[in-house]
Each structure stands twice: as C-alpha cells, then as structure tokens.
Design brief:
25% helix; alpha+beta; 10-stranded antiparallel sheet; 12 helices; 9-stranded antiparallel sheet; Immunoglobulin-like; 3 domains; single chain
Length: 474
C-alpha cells in the first residue's frame, strides 16, 4: 500500500514539474517573445527586405535591392549608400509601439479621426516590401505635446493610432541626400596600382612597386613617400559630396562649372589587375567655397569641400621620399669613411662589436659607429637641388669633402657623398644615383669623424725602471 502511495505522489510531482516547465518556464518565454513581437512596428528579417519607399510629402524615395546591393530608382536612378539604407532598416525593425491612443475599432472607416494627430497629411510614410510581400504603409504624424513621442498609424485593416519614441522617428526621417551614395570616387584603396594627378601645372604619376612601396614616374623618377601617397588615397576614399548641383549637365554647363576641360585638378586611379580607370575631375570654385566636381563615369555634378581639393593638390617635392639613404642597419658589417688625407675603416664581428682596422687596428666605440649609421638613415632632404649630375663642382661634389661607404655580406649597401658649396650649404649624392640633395649643414660635423672620435683610447704603458723592466705599482 505504501509503495502505491509513493508512486501516486511521484506521478503527481512529475506532472507538476512538467506543468511548471511547459507552462510557466517555456510557456512564459514564448509568451514573452510573443508580447515583444507584438510591440514591433514591423516584424521582418532585414535580409529579406527587397524594396523600400520613403514618402516625405515633397519627395518620394524608392530603393530596390539589385544583385545584393541597394539602388535608388526614384526620384533619380543612382547608387545608394549601403550603410545608410541598412541603418534605416535596422531602425525600422527596432522601433516599438509604446501605447495605443485610438484602437482599431474606433479608427476604422473614420479618416477624420487621424487629423488631430497630424496623420491626415503625415510628415513621413514608409512602405516596406520583403520576399513575402508588402507591409501596410506606416504613417508618422505630429509629436505629442511633450515632444517625447510621435503619433503613428499603420494604414490598412488595422488602422489603430499609437505612439513611438520621437527619436525613433528622427532616425527614420531620412531624405534623398542621406540615402544616396555620396562618395566622390568609389574604390578600394588596396587595389590601386597607379595614381595620376593632372592640372594646368603639369602631371604627376605614381606607381605601386609591390613590397617596395610607391614610386614617382613623372615628372621625375624617384622613390615616393609612402605616408603622403597613403594620406592622399585615404582623403579621396573618405570624401563625400557636399551637395548635388545637377543630375545631368550638357557641354555648356560643364564648361561653366570648369569641368570641360580640366581647370583645377583631375585625379585618375588605375585599379586592380585589369587597371580599370576611375577619374575625378575638379572644376571652378563655387560661391560657398566648395568646388564643382564630377566622377567621369557618372552624369552628376556635385560639390566637394575645399579642404579635399587642397589635400589633393600635391606638388612633386611633397610626394618624394625625403630620407634618401636606404639600408638595413643590422646588415652593415663594414664602414669606410674617406676624406682628404685620411681613410678610416671599421668592421663588425658576429657579436656586433666594431673594430677599427685602418689606419691602425684599434678597439672601436661601437655606440659611436652605430650612431653614425642612425644619422645616415635619418638624413632628411631640405631641397631637391638637381636631378642630373651636370655641374657637381657647384655643389662641392666633384671632389667630395666626405665619402661614406657601407658594406655587408653581399657587398656594398649604400654610398653617401657630401660636399659644400662655399656658402654654408651641404649637399648629398648617393653612389650610382644622379640626384643631388641639399641637407642640414650641421650634419657634416656629426658624420665627419676622426680616428680618435670612434676608437677606444689605447692602453696606458707603465713607465720603465732603470734596468728596462716595467715598474711595479707601489
């Protein structure tokens, strides 16, 4: 009897546990999820959105998803700002109904009831179409007297009037300019292989040289400053149009804008393995201080900020590499310093210890020679004095005041020749290169080292005694 009683009690307990789990716990979760879903303004998956209509009264904006990307189809056809459209969809999905003002039964068949809430002529209407079909248009009217909420009505079979947070409305109230692609020149920076800058003053051509970085090809052939080229491309990639002047322009209008032919600047990029060309042309300055511009692959004329124009107007000297002495410090195993009447040679062993081997063998001040290498590597150009070795005498380089040659296991790494012009200017030329650079004149004192500057003091000899033996300390 007792066993049967225990079985009954156990069965009742199990039933209670099942009830608590399925109704109170799992059922509670499902009821909570259903309640949260019922508060959503529109319940949809963002990935399922296919068409979006934003009616702002004076303008109706139509966006459609084509080939995975959003595109504007009205009021004009153009690319859309993908991030802006995705943010709009996210805000639409996250907007919640806060409380009902007029229920559906009271609103059906009574359009006049919407007027006090500004819903007879709404400020904004949004229609969303997904893979499953279209939702009813959602209309946004006035703000509540406290400005904390906005009145909303979903047109269709359930026309109840309710409120949403006013800041949600602000996030949804986007205009044509907010949703169109405003990039002045769409491209991926990592894919750019060549940059061309053309203006009335001439043409500059920069080419990516793989791991070696960027090089100038016109108007001179020389290494370019990586940070300058990178900054130019970043500026161009991140630039947005300040406003659109014309959706299309005829030849007469383009001439008035200074966009036919080039008046201020044209930037051309060759992108990818196929070297597809992208061109931005900048014309006259507008009255507001901006400049007229055009992506030559599109018909629109737009405005760009003057700071962008200034940032793109780079001169050749600005783009050139200003640290011309290139070598890997840890690869240097021999330094030759040659000047009138003296040749100093130092060699480094596998323990990175330097030794003077000429004009006499001495222990070296390794820190001093390492400092010399650092000074050489950090030389900065103050002026690009000449592109060819036409008249080396005027730079004091026909017979250099100082010649420094750096060598490693594989041979010569770099050679620097320094000369003075008699007027206090110091010039640099690299072995095998035609260019002459003016550098800081004070550097000569740091580089023109004597034997005693880099050699350890020789050991002091003990004084000899009368019989010729060294004296003992006493």
């Amino acid at each position: 009897m007792k066993f049967k009683t225990n079985l009954v009690i156990g069965a009742v307990f199990a039933a209670l546990l099942a009830f608590v789990y399925f109704y109170e716990i799992k059922g509670g979760e499902e009821r909570k999820a259903a309640a949260e879903k019922s508060k959503e303004l529109l319940s949809f998956a963002e990935s399922a959105a296919r068409r979006l209509v934003v009616d702002r009264g004076d303008t109706t904006i139509v966006l459609e998803k084509k080939g995975g990307d959003w595109a504007l189809t009205a009021p004009v056809e153009d690319a859309a700002d993908q991030a802006a459209v995705e943010r709009l969809l996210q805000n639409l999905k996250e907007t919640e109904r806060e409380r009902v003002i007029v229920d559906s039964a009271d609103a059906v068949g009574k359009p006049e009831i919407a007027a006090p809430y500004g819903l007879d002529v709404p400020r904004l209407g949004i229609l969303l179409e997904t893979e499953s079909g279209a939702f009813d248009t959602v209309a946004f009217g006035n703000d509540t007297p406290t400005d904390r909420y906005t009145y909303v009505q979903q047109r269709g079979e359930n026309p109840e009037i309710f409120v949403v947070r006013a800041w949600r409305f602000d996030n949804l109230d986007k205009g044509f300019f907010d949703l169109r692609d405003r990039r002045v020149l769409p491209f991926e920076k990592e894919e750019v292989e060549e940059v061309r800058l053309a203006s009335a003053g001439g043409r500059i051509v920069l080419v990516r040289e793989g791991a070696e970085g960027w090089s100038l090809k016109e108007p001179v052939e020389a290494p370019a400053t990586e940070s300058e080229v990178d900054g130019l491309l970043n500026r161009l990639k991140n630039a947005n149009a300040e406003g659109f002047v014309a959706e299309e322009a005829d030849s007469e209008s383009l001439d008035e804008f200074g966009l036919a032919p080039i008046t201020t600047l044209e930037v051309s990029l060759l992108v990818g393995e196929e070297r597809a060309e992208k061109r931005l042309r900048i014309g006259h300055a507008a009255e507001e201080g901006d400049y007229y511009a055009r992506d030559l692959s599109s018909p629109q004329v737009f405005l760009v900020d003057s700071s962008l124009v200034k940032g793109l107007q780079k001169g050749t000297d600005e783009l050139r590499n200003k640290t011309p002495v290139k070598f890997a410090t840890d690869e240097v195993t021999r330094i030759d310093i040659v000047k009138a009447g003296m040749s100093l040679i130092a060699e480094k062993d596998t323990a990175d210890v330097w030794t003077i081997v000429a004009p006499e063998r001495r222990e070296a001040k390794s820190w001093k020679l390492n400092s010399l290498l650092t000074d050489l590597a950090q030389i900065e150009v103050e002026e690009f004095a000449a592109e060819k070795r036409d008249d080396l005498a005027r730079f004091g380089l026909e017979e250099p005041a100082l010649r420094i040659r750096l060598s490693g296991a594989g041979g010569e790494l770099a050679e620097a020749l320094l000369g003075e012009d008699g007027s206090g200017n110091l010039y640099l030329m690299l072995g095998g290169a035609p260019q002459v650079y003016r550098i800081d004149a004070e550097l000569l004192g740091d580089l023109d080292l004597e034997l005693d500057d880099v050699a350890q003091a020789p050991p002091r000899e003990e004084p000899a005694t009368a019989d010729g033996a060294a004296g003992e300390g006493g």
